[in-house]
Amino acid sequence: MAAGATVAAGGDGWEAGGVSEAEEQRRGPAAQHGGARRAGGGDRELRADCARCFGICCVAPAFAASADFALDKPAGQPCPNLRADSRCGIHRDLRQHGFPGCTVFDCFGAGQHVAQGTFGGRDWRADPATARRMFDTFAVMRPLHELLWYLTEAVALTPAGPLRDELAAALTETGRLTDGTPEELLAVDVDAQRDRVNRLLSRAGEQARAGRAGADRRGAVLIGVDLRRADLAGANLRGACLIGADLRGVDLGAADLTGADLRGADLRGADLGDCLFVHQSQLDAARGDHRTVLPGGLHRPAHWSLTVTPVGSPGATRSSGGRPGGGRPTGGRSGGRHRR
């Protein structure tokens, strides 16, 4: 999965830990008491509000010891850093303690929806009989909320017409699915819903890039590749694996980054200002600096360098390798990578 989960590129959206770095930075004390931004699909919250959850993402998925997680943790077992108040005991120092995978997670509001809506405020600790159902339900709710986020973005950028009507209908239908009982949610075919939505999102991206469309690099494996000479303005990078790619100074204007895996990608000096379907956790997983141009509404992650780093001359492009197998939480209801 791209950092923080993706529609086009990865797994079932399981990267555990809590609200993303930039989200923590910008929310402030008031947001700890229910101030999560509401977006799309009526009054649905599409941003994590950990104060109204029960640390579900720190319990439900499995962790695999890797560059993203400092230890192995079986699914359904609380992370040893999870406190009794459902807060992370090392939240401010997750990267230093070997848990960068936690810092880039965003449940898109699924955690509080399951905790406060689906299960009516019942804590899995106080009601152990519901724990397994709650965790299984979260594995369904989380990708559905991610779809709601993408559909909300697509409706906003698509002009009035048949496609926007289809997107709005898919937004309503996906929202209806999230309002089901635990039993109804567990019966949802998430892969089928994702495929239906993905087709619409792909059309929305193509329409938004009309007249500006660039290279088609859908699903391209570009791990560690030097892309500083590449023309990626308007490119279709849906589901591209850009782990550790060198994108310093690259103009990504109007590129579709749906589900692109940007873990460790170097975005220093890059222009993402007009990119489509970029969410905060993708930026949290990458590297950048004060020169990196961001899309509206997104924020510079706390770990990004604040100093000017000269952009060197592009060297020879390195050959791309296979996709890494580690660093992924292994829990969840639907396996494999999201199809593009």
List keywords for this structure.
340 residues; globular; mainly alpha; disordered N terminus; 8 helices
Main β-sheet description: none
Oligomer: single chain
Intertermini distance? 12 Å
Question: Mean pLDDT score, rounded?
Answer: 82
Helix content: 25-40%
Structure description:
The radius of gyration is 19 Å and the shape is globular. It contains 8 helices and no strands. The protein has helices at residues 21-31, 100-103, 110-118, 131-157, 162-178, 182-186, 190-208, 280-285. The longest helix is centred in the middle third of the chain and has 27 residues, at 131-157. With 340 residues, the protein is mainly alpha-helical.
Write the layout of secondary structure elements.
Layout: H1 21-31, H2 100-103, H3 110-118, H4 131-157, H5 162-178, H6 182-186, H7 190-208, H8 280-285
In short:
With 340 residues, the protein is mainly alpha-helical. Helices cover 29% and strands 0% of the residues.
